[in-house]
Amino acid sequence: MSINLKGKESTPTAKRAKRRRKVGIGHYAVNVWLIFWAIISVIPMLWLILAPSKSDRNLSYKNPLSFGHISGYWHAWKNLQDFNSGVLARWVFNSITYNLAIVLIASLTASLAGFVITASKIRFKKAFLISTLIMMLVPPVALVIPLFIEMNKVNLIDNPWSVILISSLYPFGAFLSYIYYSNTIPPEIYESARLDGCSDFRLYSRIAFPLSYPLLALLAFFAFVGNWGNYFMPYIMLPSPEHYTLPVGLGALFFSTPAINPGNGATSVPILKPEIALAGILIAVPVMIVFLISQKRLVRGMLSGSIKE
Amino acid sequence: MLAPYLILLFLFGILPLIMAIFNVPSKSPSNPNGGWKVFSIVLHDFRLVPAAEHVLGFMAIFVPLMIFFVVAMSLMLDVNSAPWKKYVRLAYIVPACVSGSVAVLLWYVLLEPTLSPFKSVMHWLGITQASQIWKTQNLTFILAFMAFFALAGQWILIQFGSLQSISTEILEAARVDGCSQFQMAMRIKLPLIRKYVIYMGVLVFAGGLQIFVEPQLLNTSIYAGIANQWSFDQLSYSLAFQNGNFGEASALSLMLLVPSLIGALLVIFKTDMFEDVTLKSPKKLAKEARKREAAKA
């Protein structure tokens, strides 16, 4: 942001010098603000990461952003493991396996679909793309109740496959793949390969797939980031605690322990704020690592199709 | 090869809608004879108006705040490219890693005067007890700020990315003409990223309308009763799972889908966000190009 020049300067040089000085002040303020917001952005996460190092009491009495002792993490972890005979390990396992399955199925189906749409001359291409775009722009939460009714009909409630299959519908991924294949592989390749009698599947496995590693990384990134912290869908579809994912489990920890609600009465294992914070870390930190590593993918993916590189 | 995706699209994109539509006229205690008047029953539900007030109030803060803040921040980031800004951008992405139940946990902490990293600021403002903040009437602001904080950072990066698509020649030409940084941002960069801002607006709007997890968790697990049937989705959830009235729940879900659908169609057909996706026929594109030429002349 710069400041408009007013006043009477006699020479152009003086004008320029003044402008530079004023711009300097404006820049300074902008930069301070940018850095200030960066600090505000990381403080809550910093609190979360530091919290399990302190005891429940010290969380209130010590400086909120101070470090307690490394043994705090171990202590909180042990308590969490003792909660309801180790159900937390089950939640971690569930979260990892469900998400692995979702990322695999979603990325594969989406990249195949994007490839076929680009490579072969199928009918209804436009209808396909429009329906994919609509699905992509409508928030998934909007369909949760209708999906529940459907899953209830086919008796898949409380079966992890309900969440895995529903979350594997990946219109954004299909769209990304379509953009990727139409921008990276020249159509002549498809045509000449087809003239040589190459089937679509061979074309995909021999030519397109080896060229798709950047795409697959992008697909896996968005599928993981979008599903790892998902709460509503597993919360509704999987009511038994042994099928919970970590985010749903964390919600249950709030609900059933005195950590946040002293009114809940004590549990047999001390689940207090450090333990809850550690469970929060298990959910937030994997996503943070993925985000920090592939920050550029986020931007490239969200803008693909409208910006040419 | 297209089949696996198409099957998923049909099973989990189209079929649930068909089933929901068929579910609407089913018989229920509130609609003993069945039939389509269930839409009017839902619209006259005494809980719908408060939910609408809450969600619309929430959106009235959240959506403009998001758009204004994200655009301003991305323009500020784009003023020049200092190396340190790379780290600032990394920091902005951090709140995006916190969603759903973790976000609720963190906001419980942030707004709890005994725990908060901002407790000195809160004490300075005279807030010493959480009950001063956590009231149903404040929830609109709190939830709007929660949603804003979670989403702003990633959208700043995305809009910053869209600013990088502006050709350097245009910017150079403006600079030579004596355009100040502020004028450059307002007169040149902003109009050029307009479609991305609309894209963001639609996604943010559609997502905001479906707010569920935060009020639901706050209500059930932290401050009991603070957000009972606070949002549309909570109401539809409670119709389905507490009253067992799937007809009304489906009707409400379908009604809520309409604004999202309109938003999606708006982005697809009324902006040129996806025009490269051959959604427009070559004929139409040529026609539009001619129109632009004519406008220029």
Number of helices of chain B: 14
Give the oligomer, counting copies of the same chain as homo and different chains as hetero. heterodimer
Radius of gyration of chain A: 26 Å
Mean pLDDT of chain A equals 85
Regions with little confidence, pLDDT below 50 for 5+ residues of chain A:
1-10
Amino-to-carboxy terminus distance of chain A: 28 Å
CATH architecture of chain B, by name, is Orthogonal Bundle
Strand content of chain A: under 5%
Structural class of chain A: mainly alpha
The CATH topology of the largest domain in chain A is given as MetI-like fold
Which residues of chain B form runs of ≥5 with pLDDT under 50? none
Report the sheet with the most strands of chain A, covering strand number, pairing sense and barrel closure. none
Any idea how many domains of chain A?
2
How many structural domains are formed by the residues of chain B? 1
CATH superfamily of the largest domain in chain A: MetI-like
Strand content of chain B: under 5%
Query: What is the ordering of alpha helices and beta strands of chain B?
Result: HHHHHHHHHHHHHH
Rounded average pLDDT of chain B: 88
Summarize the structure.
The complex is a heterodimer of chains A (309) and B (297). With 309 residues, chain A is an all-alpha fold. Chain A has 15 helices and no strands.
Structure report:
The complex is a heterodimer of chains A (309) and B (297). Chain A is mainly alpha-helical and 309 residues long. Chain A has two domains: 12-69; 85-303, MetI-like fold. Chain A contains 15 helices and no strands. In chain A, helix 3 crosses helix 14. Chain A is globular. Chain B is mainly α. Chain B has one domain: MetI-like (MetI-like fold, Orthogonal Bundle). Helix content of chain B is 69%, strand content 0%. In chain B, helix 3 (48-77) runs antiparallel to helix 10 (194-209) and helix 12 (232-241) runs antiparallel to helix 13. Chain B is flat and about 75 Å long. Chains A and B meet through helix 1, helix 4, helix 5, helix 6 and helix 7 of A and helix 1, helix 3, helix 4, helix 5 and helix 7 of B.
